[in-house]
Amino acid sequence: MPHWITAPSGMAILLAVLSGCAQMPAPGKLPPNARYVAMGSSFAAGPGIPVPADSPPTRCARSTNNYPQQLARKRSLTLVDVSCSGATTAHLLGPWNELAPQLDALTPDTALVTVTIGGNDVNYIGRLMRASAGGAIEAPHAGDWARLAASFDRIAQEVRRRAPGARLIFVDYVSLLPEGRPCDQAPVPALEAAILRATARRLEAETASAARRAGARLIRASALSRNHDVCAAEPWATGYPAPHGRVAYHPNPAGMTAIAAALDAVLMQ
Q1: How do residues 160-170 score in pLDDT, each as one tens digit?
Q2: Cβ contacts of residue 12 below 8 Å, gap of 6+?
Q3: Are 28 and 269 in contact (CB under 8 A)?
Q4: What is this structure's pTM?
Q5: DSSP state of 34
């Protein structure tokens, strides 16, 4: 199995069967038109990679080129995309102004759920933007990480409760900064770059741990994109400052296509 995909443990599978999930679809057998619910933040929604998926466009800035849309087209799935730019785990679990909790999109017949969330809980991209503009930053506090871990668990529990036959797949964030010296597309001072790399690594680790605890699959977009940061010859995310119409430090169409392909490979197993 590729290193960027993790599978549920045998105990997790056994528990799922014993709790009434024995009728969940067999791997690789998602039928056409199966219900697919995509949840998460802008790294799932795809702002700035047109064309907008919603008509009229909404503040969530979902794109027809995001990975849920690409996967749904490839697999002929019935997509319910409730991902939203700026979302935190709180917005999956509860309402956000006029928006219902993203988890409310789940139904008992949901066959597939993907989740990309957590960066906004620790202000990862906000700190990266500030550092790129010359501002000082500090690392997220321990309490921020503890709250994120607890929210991950609550989200997984709600998915299992509301859609007991669904396959749950966490997708983490694409890599943004190179390991070496930042470039013109990532004008971040060395000290701030070290803080941000540590934040990215911790976010990867927390997402992976949440997937393991939930017995869920994990797409390590972070590992897939390790050589496709914003300074790379073929970046999978937009650098800073962003060209007109794009959003800095967010996945571009190539990054979204790579994630969709990784998800498709998982569904083939």
Answers
A1: 999 999 999 99
A2: 214, 215
A3: yes
A4: 0.89
A5: -
